[in-house]
Write a structure and sequence with these properties.
This protein is an alpha+beta fold. It has a domain at 12-70. It has helices at 36-44, 66-70; strands at 12-18, 23-30. The chain starts with 11 loop residues before the first strand and ends in a 20-residue tail after the last helix. This is Transposase IS4-like domain-containing protein. Residues 65-90 are annotated as: Disordered.
């Protein structure tokens, strides 16, 4: 997105990717990095996450995103910041 700044503000996109297919499944424009937290759920909610692996910044290891991990059959790993985790099936 080089050169895409408007009035000095660069666009910030949150994307969902299928790495094996090298495909972008969805994107949302967010005002800034801090706005990614509520946007992640909005981006992933319409998708069937059964059996998938979600990889995200530690920024997204919040109690509010636990239900996203639950949709992927309960596999969740700790980010080292003291968030509760479940290790069944790891």
């Amino acid at each position: 997105m080089r050169g895409a700044a408007v009035e000095g503000v660069r666009p910030h996109l949150l994307s969902a990717l299928a790495h094996a297919d090298r495909a972008v499944l969805g994107q949302l424009a967010v005002p800034d990095k801090g706005s990614e937290i509520p946007a992640l759920k909005e981006l992933l909610e319409p998708m069937d996450l059964t059996g998938t692996v979600i990889t995200a910044d530690a920024l997204h290891c919040t109690a509010g995103h636990r239900d996203l991990a639950d949709q992927t059959r309960g596999r969740r790993r700790d980010d080292g910041q003291g968030q509760p985790v479940r290790h069944e099936a790891l």
